[in-house]
Structures are given as C-alpha cells and as structure tokens.
Amino acid sequence: MCGIVGYTGTQQAAPVLLDGLARLEYRGYDSAGLAVRNGSDLAEVVKSTGKLRGLIEKTDGGRSLAGTCGIGHTRWATHGEPSQTNAHPHVSGNCSGSGSGLVESEVTGVHNGIIENYLELKEKLSRHGYQFYSDTDTEVVVKLIDYYYKKYKIGPVDAINRTLVRIRGTYALALMFRDYPGEIYAARKDAPMIIGIDGSESYLASDVPAILNYTRTVYYIGNLQIAQLRPGEVHFFDLNGDEIQLESTQITWDAKSAEKNGFEHFMIKEIYEQPAAVRDTLTSLVTEGRITLEAAGLSDEVLRGISSVRIAACGSAWHVGMAAQYILEDLAEIPVRVELASEYRYRKVLHVDGELLVVISQSGETADSLAALRKAKDLGIRTLAIVNVVGSTIAREADHVLYTHAGPEIAVATTKAFSAQLAAIYCFAVQAAYVRGLIDSDQYDGYLRELASIPDKIERILEEKERIQWFAAKYANARDIFFIGRGLDYAISLEGSLKLKEISYVHSEAYAAGELKHGTISLIEDNLLVIGVLTQKDLFEKTISNMAECKARGAFLMALTSYGNYSVEDSANFTVYVPKTDPHFMASLAVVPLQLFGYYSGVARGLDVDKPRNLAKSVTVE
Ligand code: G6P
Known about the structure:
Number of helices: 18
CATH architecture of the largest domain: 4-Layer Sandwich
Number of domains: 3
Strand order of the largest sheet: 6-3-2-4-1-11-10-12-16
CATH topology of the largest domain: Glutamine Phosphoribosylpyrophosphate, subunit 1, domain 1
Largest sheet: 9 strands, antiparallel
CATH class of the largest domain: Alpha Beta
Bound molecules: 6-O-phosphono-alpha-D-glucopyranose
Distance between the termini: 11 Å
Helix content: 25-40%
Strand content: 15-25%
C-alpha cells in the first residue's frame, strides 16, 4: 500500500527520495509527494496525482527542490479520493489550496495506515481553531502533533508521544519540525518502518527495497517507539520519552535482486527466480540430509505434541494453506483447518489443547494475518509464522518462525514467495510425519530426494514457456475462464485463477471439480475455456469426467497434468505437461504454467502486470 521514504544527510534529498519512491512503486499507489527543507527554511511541498512520473517532471527529477533533508510518500487512497490535495505530505499550518509550496507550518508529515478515531480528533482540533484543507486522517495527525507541541511547549518526541496515546489504528509516520532542521522523526504501530544508516547519511523507509541501494545496516523500529534521525545518526525513544537502544541488523538481500536485470517485468523475472527461491528455502531447512526445524524452536517434541493445525493467511498465501491442508493431513496425519485471516480475526474461535496456528505471509505485515496471529496468541495458542521478510512484524511476534528465502518480491502478484512457502510447508510436513512415526527413514530420504529435485524440474517447465505464451495470447480476450481440480489440484486451481484475474483482469473462478454440477456448469457456453488440473493419480479419472461434462456443453478444454498421463488427450483440446514428482509436491510444478498463463494473458492485453489496478503488494489496512 502506501510507501514512505525519508533522507537526511549531505546529498540533495529530493533525488534520493524519488529514487526510493520509485522502488516502492510496486506497492500500489495513486498519488505521490515530497517535502524537502533547506537549512532552517520552511519545508517545500510538491505533490502530484497518478504515477510518480508526474512528480519527477514537476520537480525536474528532484533538481528544483533544494535541501538535504526530506520525506516522500506514495499514497494509496483510504480517506478521501486520490487527489493532489489529499496526497501527502501534509502540513500543520492553516493553509488553503492543496497544502503545497512553501507553507508556514511547524510540522510536516507523511503517514501509512489508518487512524480510526480521526473524525473525533478533527472535531477537537476544529474547536481549537485548526482548519483542514484535505479529507485525510493524516492531516489530522499532523495537526494534533502541532497542537501538543505548541500547547505544552515540548519537543518533537514528547509531542509525538502525546499524539500516539490519543490516536487509534495502524500507522507509520515520518515527520519534520520547522524548529529542528536536518532532523526527521518517525513512529509506527503495526505498519512497517525501517531506518538505515551509512556514514553521514540516514534513511527511512516503509520497505527494504527503497534503501537497498544505499545501505544494508538497518534498525527495525518497534511499535510505539520513536526514532530521531540526524545525518548519520539515529536515536530511539520509548513512550515515556526515555532514550532506548536498538540493535542494528544487516540486510542480506542483494540490491540487484530488486532490479529487473533485463527482464521486461518483475513478475516474469520472479517466475524465473523460483528454482533459486525453492532451493534456498530448502537449503535453509535441510542440513546433511535432515530437516532441521530446531532453530525455529520446532523440536521433535513440539512437533509430536501438535494436536491440530489451523492456517490463517490472505490471498496466495491462503492458497498455500489450502495446499498444506492436503499435504499435512495426508503425510503427517494432523487435522488441518484453513481460514482466511480476515474471517478468523472476527469470530469466536474454539480451539483445542496442542493446536498450532500457522500464519503464512510473504511480507509479514498483512493487517489481517497479523490480527489473526495476535488473536491466537491472546488465546494462548502456539503460533508459527512462515514469512519472507526478515524482521517483519509477524516474524517478530510469532512464537516460531520459518523464513522463506525468496529475496525481495516486487511484482504485486506473488510467484516466487508462493513457491518458497510451499517448500517450507513440505519440510514441516515431512519432518512432522517422520517424528510422529508415520514414515520410516527410507521414505524420509525419498521425500528429501524428491524435494531436492523440484528446482531443476521448475527450470524444465520454464524452458517450454513459449507454448503457454502462445495459448495465453489466444485466450487473452476471453470473458470468463474456469479452473477445476480436486484435492491438491483444487488448491492449484485457486492460485491459477487468482493469478489470471489479478494480472489480466479476465474474470475467472476456480471450482472443486465435483462441485461444478451444483451451479457453475450453467455458465458453460460454446468455446468457454475450462482448465482442468490433473496431477493427482487417484482423482484423475474423476476430474476428466467433469471436464468431459463441460466439453459436452461446448467448453474448450485445457489440461494440466504430468508427463505420462497421455490419455488426457482423448478429452482435452490442449494439454500442458509438467515433470512428475511425489504427488504431495505437485503444486510446486503445476503452478508454474498457470503463473505463466496469467502473466502472458496480461502482457497480451497490454497491461501493467507488475502493478495491476487497485491492488497492493502488502495490504497493511483491513
Ligand atoms: C496481496 C498480494 C498477494 C498476497 C496477499 C497476502 O493481496 O497482492 O500476492 O498473496 O497480499 O500477502 P502476504 O504478504 O501476507 O503474503
């Protein structure tokens, strides 16, 4: 969703801020803005709607904004329409217009998240003579800080602290105070924010890729803590205003991994990075032929003590949960229930002793997934997070963490993080099955061999991408496309369907094949494309029958199965084959052609596949 960058140092701030914002573009936004201050002068604010290009042109690539300290923002509208007036930064001064230019203002700020009680605070501030030019909750926060700052004649840290205890919601804030040139203040609650230092330069960002080119030394600021940035220096304070010490961390991600490196889009680059993402995740969890989950605190004893698993996640991560359900129940014989995190968080949850709640999340910041985690923790349920972003809130709050090693994922539609999450689930399931006495060591070694072969098999699928590219172009203008499958193939269908609609805007649905007859079959018309996923031997004939029922009503059939199942061609009009592996791991292979299908459908339609409309990479509001 929104992106924040900040910089104070010896260079001109605006080009650094614009570069950082460009690296956060993938998060989704509808307007952007900068505030830069030169020495003790007022901050100059420039905002623009639409793509960042507008802001770059307006500021001549940042050259027209002089100053070595500034903050920048890309806004994904929540309160108030996407407009120049509602774009950030916002100022505390009473001004008309859009709050742009050199505005007389004590406090200037940007914000990610939502302030739930902003209307009540707005009324209070109005009674004290504050006027509002925008519809945003951000302007209210900036003015509330200004109010405490002036009323109590206190410093920025105390003014921010007084504000933090008055506002409700989730937020990350970056602020500049007129009386404190060269300084930026930051605070957060349940929204990501990191601080980076390099020599005499200090950076602030809502996401790692924004500052990866400048520094690898970062601080993760905690909830309700405040950071004070000066050139090359950062201090942290708690809610009492007392200075606290935080440890810095080194980011291991390679700056190049957040670049396109010659690929047309991040999405296709990330599809190609899947063998590495799976390999690196497996390598992190397998040592000398043994799956090692002890580092995450998942000892054999803990694994044996799990009575049931509940998985809470959103989007594609929820689809990994759907696949995990079949794998864990079959291999480890642990009862599994999969829930959308947004549902789990708001209902009465009944749980049993020994239950494990697993939250799966690429970003580790998704608001609903975080809320599900916290709810489980409040109920005393043991929690495990499968997360890609090191130091993210979910990773820090869960009892156990298994990190996926997909590196930075930039395209909004996840691909390599999805594959890495599956790899982590496989390790968890195989190890649980082994320590619970359900598989012997020969079977265990066999599963490990199969796992190790997955990256090469994904590479082989990628070598045949042209055929899918051709087929996707043929169907790029379809009105509806259906995906069907049973068991694990249903989970794969869900992900294939989501990839297609996210990227190409073609309406699509995934159905458990046996459920078609209960309604959806009425939608089958001449030439409508139905994609049948058939990777599970025991269910093959059943799904073929459901596909045949669609064909009898005019559908065009695409089948996705593994080499050897050539009888499928008796029914299907077009077949895509993937290599064979153990049936539990087939999702890792079958998903790849479907990702390519979604990607090439979007490309054929001329769409911005890395940044599909209305979507955000990391959904930090509910
Ligand atoms: C957004 C992304 C999806 C992702 C979902 C969950 O909707 O577009 O690709 O699956 O959020 O994100 P998470 O970071 O929790 O995995």
